[in-house]
Amino acid sequence: MQLTSTVLILFLLVFKIRAVTKRSIDLIETHNLISDTRLPHDIAPTSYKLVLSPYPFNGTFSGQVIIGLVWQEETNKIVLHAHESLTVFHDSTTVKLINGDGNESVEYFEDDNSNETPAITQVIKVISTEKTKSFYTITLEKPVKNKSRGFIEIFFTGILVDNRSEGMFRISYVDNDGLDNWIIGTNFRPNRARMAFPCFDEPAYKVPFNISVAHHKSTNAISNMPPLAMDEHDDPGWMWTHFSITPPMSTFSVGVVVGSLKRIIYNISKTDDLVFLTPSPLDVSLGVWGTIQYLPEIEKSLEKIATSLRALQEFWSLPYPLPKLDCVALPYYHSSRPSDSWGLIMFKENELTAKGSWQITHELVYQWLGNWASPYWWTDAHINNALARYVTTYITLKITDHNETFHNWPMTMLYSIYYEFSKRYPHGKATAIKQDSGSAKTELVFRMLNYTLGEHTVIHGLQRFMSERQYSTFFGDDTWASITDQARFDKTLDDTISATDIAASWILKDRLPVVDVERNYGDGSANITQKVYLRERPHDVPDQEKFLWWIPIVMVNQSNLDFTKFTPVKWMKREREVRIENVAKSDEFIIVNPEEIGPFPVNYDCKNWNMLARFLLTNDGRKKIPVNTRAKLLHDAWNLAYAGDLSFGTALNMTLFLQHEREHLAWYPIFTMIDHIGRHIDSSEVHAKFQTYVRLLLTPLYEELGNEPVDGESEGTTQLRESVKVFLCQAGYKPCIKEAQEAFHKWMKAESPDEGNPVQNRYICPVFKWGTKQEWEFGLQRVINFPAERKQNERTYLLKTLAGCPADPWKVEKILNVTIMENNGNFTDNDIYLIFSMLTGSSNGYTTLFNFLNTYWDTIKTRFETKPQLWNALINSATSVFKTQEGLDMVSKLYVEKQGDFGTADFVIEKSLKNIKEETKWSDENLPVIELWLDKYLKDNNVTVDAS
Predict the structure, then answer these.
(1) Which domains does the chain have, with CATH numbers?
(2) What whole-number distance in Å separates Cα of residue 843 and Cα of residue 650?
(3) What are the tens digits of pLDDT across the range 810-838?
(4) Do you find a cis peptide bond into 538, omega within 30 degrees of 0?
């Protein structure tokens, strides 16, 4: 079976290496996902013939690869990738030219083994490897001229990976008959194909693959394409499966599975080992594979797969490009995400049977975006990932019941990136966090454009993008360029604005803006300004005045609460300030950025905030403002107050409507507020009043929801009930504490309490916080006596709650005495490090730790002087979390008294003092305001403060 010359000529044109100019959104510098050194671009592959023979019982595989080559520059070197775990047989490696001396120019190379043109063997001078780069370099005796074509043949062996689902791996499982079985699988994303065969392992090299796999006759072999033929193998009981040639694809798209698996198909006739289900109009052979015992479980997933596949075909306005799609449920699959080879996706068994369809849809998106159209280089995978997640959520919301909450998408994502990008130092040293938050922000930019340009424009722009890049590659900003072209056609963007400019202003900054709206109630206008959103104090980020974004100003006012139209009244074109006329009457509020269209908070003047708060207190008002916008207003208010940009009195006014609110999405921000504000003020006398307010706010909701789920309730309601329970327990709600203690006593009465913990985790912290001495010491003994054969994460959770939950100082003192003074051998250095960390969660914890350190300084210093990591952690936990003048005085006194004695922790104590000074400023400014508001509220409601 041969590809036509037209296809191959087009392919060679696409991949002829060319000079690449820097794009307008160049992600290479800002998102270095892979530190791979690029291959030289003087030779490119044109095709692969790949023969693999995996031997699962031996844990090895052997193979042969024939790679078609085209020379794009004269060179005597061939450089490709081969992982150090591969054994390549240098003596068997051959290089041949099809066109003799290389003077003849040809257009394409039909068959790597063609006998029509004599193949001239080239003399290999030397073969070398470079392990750090996985380079395999063949140096020829003579250079080969530009436009020459030929092929390289390599034989190799390798080791099947155990306990990690990467490269070519094997999985062992026990079948229904109690027999051991093996499954072979592959996971080559992002650059692991080199672990299985020598190749040009870069995403831009997309070429056809001709794959053959050897396997035992009792097993099936699956690959990207349907089987083409089967042959006898030289080994008795073995056979060859040869697959149809693939379209051009990247090496990471190659997939192979071998095992005793069975297939259920969706839309083709019944044959041996196939079970026919409901016919489908999809023009593709769609099937799921699994072990015989798990097949009935995954059968239900076929309908979800088919539904998502249809929806994606409609979204892209392109049919699925391959003749078949197989989804395989693998037992004991170890990768954090499925292996999304083209036409072959490997899942964990429970991923195919899980509730909802987000995971399945997400992997199907990559069949188009990633496999059919691939990033040119790993850095462009950032855009690929963001767009894939956006399309996944878009499709999932279209095809499923809206009770499937996606973890409150997009609010959970929005809130987390608000917190991350508003730090003084976003991400710290965590590259993974930077990649994930950057990708999440880019996903939200797609969402913002979908609102502001219109769904029609964005979807047709993405269809334009995909249709132009079939079997090809793309750069990060190609998506924005396609959306811009479509927007120009649809006249949803004028010539002064491009999606590329808009996106670049968001993607290339590890910051987000906050928009301030100052109304002029006399003439009905509003001045709107933008600045960097900084939540942590001090707000001293360098060059922040230079940060400007393209921001859509979408606005609704009280007389026209239309939340279906999102055309911006104005774009802030990287302008510091704009003025908008006729926003509303003087007695009407406005809402900017409704539905969180763009990822930025909005601040108003006090009058507008108070009008919003009063409106939300009415039943009619809450009905007219959608729940996402209600959540946004609440979240913006308290976060702006936390940052020092809004009075806490105004922010707390925005919480009053919650006494009548029952939508879980509107409640979501308040739980974060309770946690953040509660931690900040728990060392002050205001904390007891705040906890009383929390109990007043949550108790009616808790009583209405009931203690247990009811049939048919939404996932959101269930989550809301659990959150209310957790925060009521933390606030000392007595019925909650009683319920927790009753559950805990069942464990205390057990004959062998160390054999297992029958108590749900949510009960343990309330017991250790508010419970008796006997209950807490029972927990301490369980940690000390914890059996080695039980799961150690259970012990870790117990230790965390023992240290981090108690409200009584004596409990903290006891665990410090046991672990530090008594040097109990049941606690490791890691345990002590964990205890120090947990004690920073409450003022009782870090204050008790500070006093303990101050009292036993000499003993503790001697204990930890040879363990600088623990010593530094102790000083940090004991000194860095104070937030009041009293705490600042305590730490300052210790610093003076012990100056010169901190050793490696000198920089820690100095940093602590600087942080406490900032926190003290915050407390001095905000605690009186919070207390005044709470006093008035509690007085108006005739409530007496009770600490429990």
Answers:
(1) 1-16+40-260 (2.60.40.1730), 272-393 (1.10.390.10), 427-510 (no CATH), 731-940 (1.25.50.20)
(2) 26
(3) 999 999 999 999 988 999 999 999 999 99
(4) yes
Pinpoint the alpha helices (H) of 577-685: 606-616, 619-624, 627-642, 648-653, 664-681
8 A C-beta contact, residue 27 and residue 507: yes
d(C-alpha 571, C-alpha 502), whole Å: 10
Question: What's the token pair of residue 3?
Answer: 């590809």
pLDDT tens for residues 724-780? 988 998 888 999 999 999 999 999 999 999 998 999 998 999 999 999 999 999 999
Looking at residue 572, the DSSP 8-state letter turns out to be E
Nearest alpha-carbon partner for 906 in 876, 886, 927, 933: 876
DSSP code for 654: T
Closest CA to 356 of 386, 292, 318, 399: 399
Q: Beta strand pairing status for 149-159 and 209-216? A: unpaired
Instruction: Return the H-helix or E-strand segment holding 734.
Output: helix 734-748
> Cβ distance 634 to 616 under 8 Å?
no
DSSP state of 245: P
CA–CA gap between residue 660 and residue 667 (Å, rounded): 11
The three-class DSSP label of residue 228 is strand
Strand partners, 70: 44, 149
Cα 477 to its chain centre, rounded Å, is: 21
Catalytic member of 363, 443, 596, 661: 363
929 class by beta-carbon count within 10 Å (0-12 exposed, 13-18 middle, 19+ buried): middle
The amino acid sitting at 143 is: P
| 239, 228 contact by CB (below 8 A) | no
DSSP SS3 for 117: coil
Phi, psi of 675 (to 5 degrees): -70, -50
Kindly report the pTM of this predicted structure.
0.86
Contact between residue 593 and residue 554 where contact means Cβ atoms under 8 Å apart: yes
Cα separation of 100 and 114, whole Å? 14
The response to whether 81 counts as a known ligand-binding position is no
Which residues on neighbouring strands pair with residue 161, listed in sequence order?
169
Whether the ω angle into residue 809 lies within 30 degrees of 0, i.e. cis, is no
Which of 694, 702, 686, 649 is closest to 670 using CA atoms? 694
* Distance separating alpha carbons of residues 826 and 812, to the nearest angstrom: 17
- Alpha-carbon gap, residue 457 to 849, rounded angstroms: 59
Q: What CA–CA distances, in Å, run from 689 to 653, 728, 766, 898?
A: 16, 14, 19, 37
- Name the amino acid, one letter, at 218: S
Contact indicator for 323, 284 with CB cutoff of 8 Å: yes
Percent of the chain as helix, strand, coil, to the nearest 5: 45, 20, 35
Which ranges constitute the DSSP H helices of 339-380? Answer: 349-353, 358-368
Asked if 157 and 97 count as a contact pair (C-beta separation under 8 A), the reply is: no
Per-residue pLDDT tens over the stretch 508-559: 899 999 999 999 999 999 999 999 999 988 888 888 889 999 999 999 999 9
363 given a catalytic annotation? yes
Confidence band (pLDDT; 50, 70, 90) for 111?
Answer: very low
Residue in 169, 247, 240, 171 with CA at minimum distance from that of residue 207: 247
Cβ neighbours of residue 239 closer than 8 Å, sequence gap 6 or more: 214, 215, 216, 217, 230, 231, 232, 233
Tokens 């196939």 correspond to what residue? 274
Print the SS3 string covering 744-806: HHHHHCCCCHHHCCCCCHHHHHHHHHHCCHHHHHHHHHHHHCCCCCCCHHHHHHHHHHHHHCC
Residue by residue, what is the 3-state secondary structure of 432-466? HHHHHHHHHHHHHHHHHHHHHCCHHHHHHHHHHHH
